[in-house]
Specification:
With 418 residues, the chain is of the alpha/beta class. Helices cover 25% and strands 29% of the residues.
């Protein structure tokens, strides 16, 4: 039997939950389908409170988790949904035929490295790590991107013995070298063992713990849990992607400027490629607007901000110095440590960090910036605007507020550009 609704949202993580709530509030008949945690596992720090107190996009997480329910024009089905044709979704023994279409918000999954023995072990992904109810005594983290560094510090501060293994020469390899140095110093201060330029040849599990064998005959590592934080790819296998003209083997779902992946089909969040929660929210807003038929511009986030919520925070936007030079730009840079009046920042955090600016000297505009410190993400705001609008450095010098020590560092760094 076909059930008629307006929209089906496949996946109720950060972006999917927003789409579901916003469309329902606009009067549409919406069904959300989710096999795991409602609200998603990878939320920014300020969002954890909403989930733990039982509020997800304005609806009761407890009621949603209980099974098929309806709240006004909102329905929820706990299970794994599958596309079975244009504007057609099946879950369990039910089939939904949405009049307007389907929103894919199924997230991504790790692309496992080719390490012998890994696939047959009960390794953790970020989903397992954040959902665990028991703190392991020891943890090995494979990979040191933003997620790996954040999780390593989190578990270390709960007195878990953590080792980070990175095959490349430094942590956060996609960021400025100064950010890598800062992150490694912060992790080591919290007791984390950092092994960079270290490859893994084999992983084993004996029922009680993991053994990780390293390249070069180095002594194997042993830990109760293993977290794999490698590259992410859209989990389209088994989703029925081929029934709507998508390639199930693709690493991401391609979309146009209105987040359309096909006729009556939209995609948001990590299923479109790894994105931050902020970008996912932005995609969700564009999708809701398009479904409701409201006019609006195409998406424009070619230079999304990158946030690493460690202590200290690391935030960046645009090109790093190396990327700018690789594009054969005539580069001018400025690097300044965070202004340190005293040794502590907000809520007792260390006033440790820096601001680094990357200028295209021929055009006189910023093409990249990194803000690291106790308020790193907040300080980046003005720099983010400057990079996206190609504001001249000369104009920016008179625009940056000089009211707080952290912003004064930006002002001083601008002066260092000459």
């Amino acid at each position: 039997m076909n059930e008629q609704v307006d929209v089906v949202v496949l996946g109720l993580g950060h972006a999917g939950g927003y789409v579901m709530g916003a469309l329902a509030e606009s009067g549409l008949d919406v069904v959300g389908i989710e096999p795991r945690l409602v609200g998603g596992e990878r939320l920014p720090p300020g969002c954890f409170t909403d989930v733990t107190t039982g509020s997800v996009s304005g609806f009761s997480a407890a009621r949603l988790a209980a099974g098929p329910v309806a709240v006004g024009r909102v329905g929820f089905v706990h299970g794994k949904g599958r596309l079975s044709g244009p504007r057609r979704v099946t879950v369990g023994g039910r089939t939904f035929r949405p009049r307007k279409g389907v929103v894919l918000a199924t997230g991504a999954q790790p692309r496992l490295p080719s390490v012998r023995g890994l696939a047959g072990t009960p390794y953790w992904t970020d989903r397992n790590a954040l959902a665990t109810m028991e703190l392991p005594e020891s943890l090995i983290v494979l990979g040191s991107g933003g997620l790996g560094v954040e999780t390593a510090q989190l578990f270390a501060r709960f007195r878990c013995a953590v080792t980070v293994v990175e095959r490349r020469p430094r942590l956060l390899p996609q960021e400025e070298p100064e950010a890598s140095t800062l992150a490694e110093r912060a992790l080591r201060r919290d007791g984390v063992t950092v092994l960079s330029s270290t490859g893994v040849s084999e992983v084993g599990h004996d029922g009680t713990g993991f053994t990780v064998r390293l390249d070069g005959g180095r002594e194997p590592l042993r830990a109760q849990r293993l977290l794999v934080t490698m590259e992410q790819e859209a989990g389209l296998v088994g989703l029925g992607a081929d029934t709507v003209g998508l390639d199930a083997r693709a690493g991401a779902v391609p979309t146009d400027g209105q987040m359309r992946a096909g006729r009556g089909l939209w995609a948001v969040g990590d299923v479109t490629g790894p994105v931050s929660s902020d970008v996912a929210s932005y995609q969700a807003e564009v999708t809701v607007r398009d479904i409701l038929g409201w006019p609006g511009p195409d998406t424009g986030y070619e230079k999304p901000a990158r946030l690493v919520f460690t202590d200290p925070e690391i935030a960046a936007v645009g090109l790093t110095e190396r990327q700018a030079r690789n594009q054969r730009l005539r580069v001018r840079t400025s690097l300044l440590p965070v202004n340190s009046f005293g040794s502590r920042g907000p809520r007792g955090r260390r006033r440790e960090g820096f601001v680094k600016l990357v200028e295209d000297a021929d055009r006189g505009v910023l093409v990249g910036a990194t803000s690291a410190g106790p308020a790193g993400a907040e300080v980046l705001y003005g720099l983010n605007v400057a990079v996206h609008t190609a504001m001249s450095v000369e104009r920016l010098r008179s625009w940056v507020p000089a009211c707080l020590p952290f912003h004064r560092t930006v002002e001083a760094a601008l002066g260092g550009l000459g």
